[in-house]
Amino acid sequence: MTERRARRRPGENRERLIEAGLTEFGLSGYHGTSTARIAARAGVPQPHVYANFRTKQELFFACVESAARRIRDRAASGGSSALGSDRVGATSDSSVALTDSSDARLLLQASAAAAVPELRPLLNAELGALHLALGEHAYAEVLAQGAAALRGGFTAAE
Q: Quick count: other Cβ atoms within 10 Å of Cβ 11?
């Protein structure tokens, strides 16, 4: 007799797809990632991707929004009183250091994907808002962390 899998709570597949998308899009970029790989990583059948998101582009934007929100939340909880300032170094180094590598990788890939005309408007809006929230220095540090995570943690000096 086949054992039945436990039912997931409403919205759980969507959350799993976003988490899987953070990893897959972060590693391979928008064009290098298939919805089949995201579905496999999330442990759901591929049709569930399109039951939760109309398009791959919609899933990508949901992942970018999630990563940006988590980075803003971490920066705010890191005690930065200057959050929201657009001056250089608006956040403390400790709040930037709290950035998850999958979030940083995804934002680096989103920055690259912003060159694609159909992705540009929404990505520029989300990335621009994050840039304003963090400030120039902290935003650049997040992107540098994303690049380091893609390189496997190696720096140019190594």
A: 9
C-alpha pair distances (Å), 31 with each of 83, 116, 122, 156: 33, 10, 16, 27
- Give the C-alpha separation, 63 to 77, whole Å: 21
Question: Which 8-state DSSP code applies to residue 3?
Answer: P
What lies within 8 Å, CB to CB, of 109 at 6+ separation is 25, 26, 28, 29, 30, 146
Kindly report, residue by residue over 21-45, the tens digit of the pLDDT: 999 999 999 999 999 999 999 999 9
Say which CATH topology domain 12-150 has.
Tetracycline Repressor; domain 2 (1.10.357)
pLDDT digits (tens, 9 = 90+) for 116-158: 999 999 999 999 999 999 999 999 999 999 999 999 855 555 4
CA proximity to 20, closest of 55, 2, 46, 54: 46
pLDDT computed for residue 43 by the predictor:
96
Output the CA angle 146-131-97, nearest 5 degrees. Answer: 45
